[in-house]
């Protein structure tokens, strides 16, 4: 596996993270956020984003999976659910990427069953071309082409998460 030049540089990502945080700060002024990161992919984005959010917040995480190699299984596995109470909270789901929408919709619906006050979604990367289930995303970092990407938390079989940029993964041959 190889990748070309970055699709999104570290500088582009960090500038957009600050912009997203600014919008979130404005939208949630005077309120407290329960920020729920979707692991493992969102760990870098989540960490960088919450550093720039200046309204009160608490954090929690959901660990889920739905991919094997570069293919979605269509089945969402929740390995660890959020532990903080969601009822009557202003919930912000923070996710690295949305493509088919299956996983994010599943998580959103599961959280809505717990009666939050509000529920919004923030994603770094959006592959609209692959959408099978429509999901309203409130904050989007970048729309990207229908390519398999790695870096800045996204992975291929748990590899490349540590790259500070996002690149398109190319299979040899």
Automatic annotation (TrEMBL):
Entry keyword annotation includes Glycosyltransferase: yes
Localization terms from the record: Cytoplasm
Key words, A-Z: Cytoplasm, Glycosyltransferase, Magnesium, Metal-binding, Nucleotide-binding, Purine salvage, Transferase
Name of encoding gene: hpt
PANTHER family: HYPOXANTHINE PHOSPHORIBOSYLTRANSFERASE (PTHR43340:SF1), HYPOXANTHINE-GUANINE PHOSPHORIBOSYLTRANSFERASE (PTHR43340)
Entry's family note: Belongs to the purine/pyrimidine phosphoribosyltransferase family.
InterPro entries the record matches: HGPRT (IPR050408), Hxn_phspho_trans (IPR005904), PRTase-like (IPR029057), PRTase_dom (IPR000836)
Pfam families, A to Z: Pribosyltran (PF00156)
Cofactor list: Mg(2+)
GO molecular function: glycosyltransferase activity
CDD domains noted in UniProt: PRTases_typeI
Pathway linked to the protein: Purine metabolism; IMP biosynthesis via salvage pathway; IMP from hypoxanthine: step 1/1
Main location: cytoplasm
Positions of the Phosphoribosyltransferase domain: 11-156
Protein's UniProt keywords contain Iron: no
Protein name: Hypoxanthine phosphoribosyltransferase
Enzyme Commission number(s) of this protein: 2.4.2.8
Enzyme class: transferase
Organism: Candidatus Magnetominusculus xianensis
Lineage top rank: taxon: Bacteria
Catalyzed reactions per annotation: IMP + diphosphate = hypoxanthine + 5-phospho-alpha-D-ribose 1-diphosphate; GMP + diphosphate = guanine + 5-phospho-alpha-D-ribose 1-diphosphate
